[in-house]
Design a protein that fits this description.
Length: 107
């Protein structure tokens, strides 16, 4: 239906777009805002969950490296891998490797 069939004047035609009323009512505006808020909350939750998963994997890998280096040190030096000295040295070697990698990446 065209504008002239609706009985609208020239001054009223400027208020309407090709697809009808371009102005949103307050109810439609609040629904649109709620939809954007829900999308933002979903995205925020997914980012937090993804960050927790990646952080957990990184911590797991660091502890695995620590354990492997501690066991290697225990085997090489002849110390039992249940000894606290073995785990301290393994942790220090892991810390040294991580620090060297971080400083290498930042240069």
């Amino acid at each position: 239906m065209k504008y002239h069939e609706k009985g609208l004047g020239a001054d009223q035609e400027s208020e309407y777009g090709e697809k009808g009323n371009s102005q949103l009512t307050p109810l439609e505006t609040s629904k649109k805002g709620d939809t954007n808020l829900i999308k933002a909350l979903k995205l925020g939750c997914l980012v937090v969950i993804f960050g927790l998963i990646i952080g957990g994997v990184l911590i797991l890998l660091i502890f695995a490296m620590w354990a492997i280096l501690a066991i290697f040190f225990g085997v090489i030096s002849g110390i039992s891998f249940t000894s606290p000295l073995c785990w301290v040295v393994g942790g220090l070697i892991s810390l040294l490797i991580i620090c060297l990698e971080i400083t290498h990446k930042t240069k």
